[in-house]
Specification:
- The chain is an alpha+beta fold.
- The protein folds into two domains: 124 residues, no CATH class; 192 residues, no CATH class.
- The chain is 22% helix and 27% strand.
- The strands form three sheets. Strands 5, 6, 7, 9, 10, 11, 12 and 13 form an eight-stranded mixed β-sheet that branches.
- Helix 1 crosses helix 2.
Length: 342
């Protein structure tokens, strides 16, 4: 049986090759969309790296400006560049600028550097579509200011007995005693005696305090809370291992009332590098407080009976994103809280 054949349309097959043209056009669209997607992803990844670099640079400048007491833009640029590159995943980034125009703040701007030193992203797929290279930037602002609240070891120190405002890393080593003599509690007298006082605790061996109008309650007597043994044991372990124990103590300028009704008016926080202490007569409550102990002298010794003291030096100290609020309301006693604010 003969096959039936459909005769071709008059003039031949006019649609032959049309599919190939459509595929070619669609390929251009798909390549363009894919290029933009890849490049957008690369830009976002680069921005994330640059943000890490800007954050690290801003925090580093804030720390070092506070530690130095002041800093110039050229110094800040050097410090930011030391941290910006290593904190980018590719190990490179440029620091465009450092702004110190606002007191207690620094803004660091970073931008694309690229492993080849170019100031823009290379090997961009969109360049095949005649799109230009991209430069990406990121900025971070860090602030430093005296703490206005905090939680820690439940001991407050009077500002009337000791000079806390010139805290430096090589400050004078001194003994701060429970009853150093004289009036050390401010204008209200000595209702809570001595140069320090124990605070009411919110949890074992931790007191929460705030500067300003709030008043921290007192825990009367010269003996410390009995549940501080493990904290003090940790301090001893750190010191014997060659480390430093730095404690931010609340500082008060006024006291009132007596006993459990007593209060301390906290004005700020000062950090004390601990050499030794005597909070009691046993276990971890006394450490390196005799004249014969390492680095001790007879003038610093605090042994025997009811003597109570801490031995060491006030130092400048910077906390990073601590619980202390940054409002600038606390007295500047050498301890500040550093935060990224944008």
């Amino acid at each position: 049986m003969p096959r039936l054949r459909t005769p071709p349309p008059q003039g031949g097959n006019r649609e032959r090759g049309a599919a190939g043209v459509m595929v070619a056009l669609l390929m251009l669209v798909l390549i363009g969309a894919g290029s933009l997607a890849v490049d957008t992803g690369e830009i976002y990844a680069e921005r994330a790296q640059l943000q890490n670099a800007a954050d690290a640079g801003a925090l580093a400048v804030a720390q070092r400006c506070h530690a130095a007491g002041s800093c110039s833009v050229s110094q800040a640029l050097t410090w930011a560049r030391e941290l910006a590159g290593p904190n980018a995943n590719d190990g490179v980034s440029a620091v465009d600028s450092v702004d110190l125009s606002v007191a207690g703040q620094v803004t660091v701007v970073t931008s694309t550097l690229g492993t080849d030193g170019a100031g823009y992203l290379t090997k961009m797929f969109a360049s095949a579509l005649n799109a230009g290279p991209a430069t990406v930037r990121a900025a971070a602002t860090a602030s430093w200011a005296p703490m206005t609240s905090g939680s820690g070891f439940p001991l407050a120190i009077s500002n009337s007995c000791f000079n806390l405002s010139t805290a430096v890393a090589t400050g004078e080593v001194q003994k701060i005693s429970y009853k150093p003599g004289g009036t050390c509690t401010g204008p209200s007298g000595t209702q809570i005696p001595g140069g320090w006082g124990w605070l009411d605790r919110s949890t074992p061996c931790v007191a929460v305090t705030t500067t300003g109008s709030n008043r921290a309650g007192s825990d009367p007597g010269n003996n410390p809370p009995t549940d501080c043994d493990s904290v003090l044991g940790g301090w001893i372990t750190t010191i014997l291992a060659g480390g430093d124990v730095k404690v931010a103590f609340p500082v008060f300028d006024d006291v009132g009332n007596q006993g459990q009704n007593g209060y301390f008016h906290v004005i700020g926080y000062a950090t004390f590098k601990m050499w030794g202490w005597k909070f009691g007569n046993n276990h971890n409550y006394e450490f390196r407080n005799d004249a014969g102990d390492p680095n001790m002298t007879s003038a610093l010794a605090c042994s025997g009976g009811n003597n109570r003291c801490i031995i060491g030096q006030f130092v400048k100290f910077e906390t990073i994103d601590s619980s202390g609020a940054i409002s600038g309301g606390g007295a500047d006693l050498g301890t500040v809280d550093i935060k990224l604010i944008r």
